[in-house]
Amino acid sequence: MIKILICCASGSGTSQLMAITAQKACKSAGVEANVKHCPIAEGKSSARNYDLVLTSPAFIKMFDSAKAAGVNVYPLKNPLSQDEIIAALKAAGYIS
Amino acid sequence: MEILKDIVDSKHYIFCEGFSDWTEAIKAAAAPLLAEGIIENTYVDAIIENVKEYGPYIIIAPEVAMPHSTLGGSGVHDTCISFMKTEKPVVFDPNDPTKNARLFFTLAATDNEKHLSNMVALAEFLLKEGAIEDLLKAKNADDLMKAHCKYSE
């Protein structure tokens, strides 16, 4: 079970949509995942408790410290693209 | 999938020629909700400020914008979606044409459960092959209902 955190500015629109896409993508890739989404302000401090953080390219820098602590952090350009989620899962080594 | 039907039934839609300024486009897209008091100007201003601060993160796919701000934020009194289509693309970033949009789904949310089901329905709809293309060709509410019928099977 991997823990995924998805963040956007508001925590209710874009990240919600990304979370829906991520759940679909994980299901189709056979990856068991617990997907949570929240606003950037909250995610910045809780990111270290997750395996994988996904966010809009605009916010990626906010997770530099989580990245330094070993969390996999990847940007998502298109919140509706399952392919981007699959690519992030591959890059993080959860699927081959 | 009732998103488009709900939008048509509640008359939360608007068709426009275009806007030279994206802030005007966001105001127009929110107008159907504003007119009914579902949202207030403060909410529209918050959306615009967020985009100014963070960039056009509300573009969820090429041609598709989803203007929104925080769930339960100030100036929001109900959970709903309004739709706007423009003939000419609205430019959010002059250096990045992938951030142009002609379809706007403005979100207002007070009820988390209803908001979530709205988002799931919107995502399901937009992920259907051809759905975005059909909306880009829509000229009126009848076309929205046709798209609703076509993709709700």
From TrEMBL, chain A:
PROSITE patterns: PTS_EIIB_TYPE_2. Gene3D superfamilies: 3.40.50.2300. GO terms for molecular function: protein-N(PI)-phosphohistidine-sugar phosphotransferase activity. Keywords: Transferase. Residues 2-96 form the PTS EIIB type-2 domain. GO terms for biological process: phosphoenolpyruvate-dependent sugar phosphotransferase system. This is PTS system, Lactose/Cellobiose specific IIB subunit. It comes from Holdemania filiformis DSM 12042. The lineage of its organism: Bacteria, Bacillati, Bacillota, Erysipelotrichia, Erysipelotrichales.
UniProtKB/TrEMBL annotation, chain B:
CDD domains: PTS_IIA_fru. Signal peptide: none annotated. The keyword Cytoplasm applies. Residues 6-151 form the PTS EIIA type-2 domain. It holds the Pfam family PTS_EIIA_2. One of its GO terms (biological process) is phosphoenolpyruvate-dependent sugar phosphotransferase system. It is found in: Cytoplasm. Keywords: Cytoplasm, Kinase, Phosphoprotein, Phosphotransferase system, Pyruvate, Transferase, Transport. GO terms for molecular function: kinase activity. Transmembrane segments: none annotated. GO terms for cellular component: cytoplasm. It comes from the Bacteria. The keyword Transcription regulation does not apply. InterPro entries: Ascorbate-PTS_EIIA_comp (IPR051351), PTrfase/Anion_transptr (IPR016152), PTS_EIIA_type-2_dom (IPR002178). The phosphoenolpyruvate-dependent sugar phosphotransferase system (sugar PTS), a major carbohydrate active transport system, catalyzes the phosphorylation of incoming sugar substrates concomitantly with their translocation across the cell membrane. The enzyme II UlaABC PTS system is involved in ascorbate transport. This is Ascorbate-specific PTS system EIIA component. It comes from Holdemania filiformis DSM 12042.
